[in-house]
């Protein structure tokens, strides 16, 4: 096997997604412990202790104690190279979270057992489904009284429209929690109320070696439930999992901790390694000897002392060597990748080599755009365009000081190009309208306009709007639009309508049945 193939087969690149407070930070921290990246639990968490999460670096992140941008953590685990891409956990999350999903090969979805599926899980999940990303589910907080496991599985199947396969099954919960039946490993994992777990093979249970357990009524009832699952439940299919059609479900507690090791071992054994990716010239194999990759995120001023921009690149093929020359597919220009960093926690280490699945941070001399493809040698192709995600919050933006309109325009243009926020122009008034996936993007935008372009900006909310794009093939009749259904153009001069609410949208549909309205979430 070539070195490249060997390296690619070691990579497991994934993101953890969840609704805020479901336990993403706690689980991530557990995994960092497993990977020996940190030594004690409780060091990553920043909100209350005043210490900041390892992945929080921008000033604004410090001020608000949240993680604004996605960072990458990596470590070796058994024979694998694990890359975890962090996503903002705050409810005001942004497009960064969505884009991060284009750079991973699978995701771990955390669900709080006491709550079930929450708004944010659903949004992120939609994107994973759209892109066919394999999803592994960790149902967390089993140490508390939560909802019935069957009930939770049913909800996942109904709401997310995905088949579930419980890899393990809990016995009791909260104070009555005894452990889990590990259906995959054919053993019972006993919860001892501390970090130690006891692994008891099914055979030993049958031999009557653990009477205090087997005579417990909850244990006994659950054993029957598991037998029923084996008989009447869905069959496990790794193929369906890898196609994103079935999700393996694990129960546990990130805090206790319990079930984390079993989850992670099973997950790592099943999670996909980097796959071939679509390009404008066909499919590129991850073990193709020529280097290629795409930029899914650009971040400015991570270090205020340097005022630099870092582009995050997902390697898709070949071998990255520090200092190599690559071609920027969009312009055909050759660039030397002299400064490359692997972003590990708060330190940046120089990367000498990287393979498909790895994420590297490269110095951006203001040359890159989100979605850019970098390739080596003779190739000429681009990776599939990064999808545009429909914004949900819209605001008009103006400069406080009209004398600063030049910097204002420059700032907006650069930040929009960077993908920090989306820009629209009202067709009637030509005013600037910013669209974001979450409120937080406005805070970041305002902060950066002040700090990088020296312009104070003001926002005028136009409320939550529902954006629908018009079919470019159809003639636009401007007289049909007004404040409630605002006609705008996006960066690429496509027309879209910002509807005031569901009612305005439906009214318009009924009265103009011949006009196509395109929902970005439904396409792709
Ligand atoms: P995030 O917002 O998704 O990153 O969630 P955190 O990891 O910050 O967890 C939110 C809260 O839930 C914190 O107070 C955690 O201590 C708590 N938590 C996380 N995992 C568990 C768990 O397994 N059991 C219990 N009881 N609490 C948990």
TrEMBL record:
A cellular component annotation (GO) from this entry: cytosol
Domain of life per record: Bacteria
Subcellular location: Cytoplasm
Keyword Endoplasmic reticulum set for record: no
Broad class of the protein's primary localization: cytoplasm
CDD domains assigned to the protein according to its UniProt record, in alphabetical order: RF3 (cd04169), RF3_III (cd16259)
Keyword Ribonucleoprotein on entry: no
Pfam (any one): EF-G_D2
Gene Ontology MF terms in the entry: GTP binding; GTPase activity; translation release factor activity, codon nonspecific; translation release factor activity, codon specific
Family designation: Belongs to the TRAFAC class translation factor GTPase superfamily. Classic translation factor GTPase family. PrfC subfamily.
Cited function: Increases the formation of ribosomal termination complexes and stimulates activities of RF-1 and RF-2. It binds guanine nucleotides and has strong preference for UGA stop codons. It may interact directly with the ribosome. The stimulation of RF-1 and RF-2 is significantly reduced by GTP and GDP, but not by GMP.
HAMAP family documented for this protein: Rel_fac_3 (MF_00072)
Name listed for the protein in its UniProt record: Peptide chain release factor 3
Originating species: Oceanobacillus halophilus
Gene, per the UniProt record: prfC
């Amino acid at each position: 096997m070539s070195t490249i193939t060997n390296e690619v087969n070691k990579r497991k690149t994934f993101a953890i997604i969840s609704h805020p407070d479901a336990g993403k930070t706690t689980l991530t921290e557990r995994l960092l412990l497993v990977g020996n990246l940190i030594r004690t639990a409780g060091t990553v968490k920043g909100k209350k202790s005043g210490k900041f999460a390892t992945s929080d670096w921008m000033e604004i992140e410090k001020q608000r104690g949240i993680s604004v941008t996605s960072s990458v953590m990596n470590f070796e685990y058994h024979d694998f190279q694990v890359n975890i891409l962090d996503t903002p956990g705050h409810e005001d999350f942004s497009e960064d979270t969505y884009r991060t999903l284009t750079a991973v090969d699978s995701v771990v979805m955390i669900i709080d057992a006491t709550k079930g599926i929450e708004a944010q899980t659903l949004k992120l999940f939609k994107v994973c489904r759209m892109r066919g990303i394999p999803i592994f589910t960790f149902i967390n907080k089993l140490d508390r009284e939560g909802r019935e496991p069957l009930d939770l599985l049913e909800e996942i199947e109904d709401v997310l429209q995905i088949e579930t396969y419980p890899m393990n099954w809990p016995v009791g919960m909260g104070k009555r929690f005894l452990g889990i039946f590990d259906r995959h490993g054919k053993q019972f994992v006993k919860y001892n109320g501390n970090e130690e777990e006891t692994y008891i093979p099914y055979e030993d249970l049958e031999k009557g070696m653990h009477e205090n357990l087997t005579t417990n009524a909850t244990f006994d009832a659950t054993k029957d439930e598991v037998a029923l699952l084996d008989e009447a439940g869905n069959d496990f299919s790794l193929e369906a999992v890898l196609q994103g059609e079935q999700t393996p479900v694990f129960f546990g507690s990130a805090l206790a901790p319990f079930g984390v090791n079993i989850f992670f071992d099973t997950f790592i054994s099943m999670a996909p390694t980097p796959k071939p990716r679509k390009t404008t010239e066909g499919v590129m194999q991850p073990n193709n000897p020529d280097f290629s990759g795409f930029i899914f995120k650009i971040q400015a001023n991570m270090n205020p002392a340097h005022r630099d921009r870092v582009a995050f690149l997902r390697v898709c093929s070949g071998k990255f060597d520090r200092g190599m020359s690559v071609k920027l597919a969009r312009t055909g220009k050759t660039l030397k990748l002299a400064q490359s960093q692997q972003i590990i926690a708060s330190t940046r280490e120089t990367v000498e080599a990287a393979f498909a699945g790895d994420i590297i941070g490269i110095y951006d001399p203001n040359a890159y755009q989100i979605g850019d493809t970098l390739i080596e040698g003779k190739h000429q192709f681009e990776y599939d365009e990064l999808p545009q995600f429909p914004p949900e919050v819209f605001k008009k933006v103006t400069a406080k000081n009209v004398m600063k309109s030049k910097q204002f325009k420059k700032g907006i243009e650069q930040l929009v190009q960077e993908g920090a926020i989306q820009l629209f122009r009202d067709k009637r008034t030509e005013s600037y309208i910013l669209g974001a996936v979450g409120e937080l993007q406005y805070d970041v935008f305002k902060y950066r306009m002040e700090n990088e372009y020296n312009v104070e900006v003001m926002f005028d909310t136009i409320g939550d709007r529902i954006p629908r794009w018009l079919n470019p093939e159809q003639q636009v009749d401007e007289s049909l639009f007004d404040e409630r259904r605002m006609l705008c153009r996006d960066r690429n001069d496509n027309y879209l309508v910002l509807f005031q609410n569901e009612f305005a949208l439906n009214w318009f549909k009924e009265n103009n049945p011949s006009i196509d309205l395109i929902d970005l979430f439904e396409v792709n």
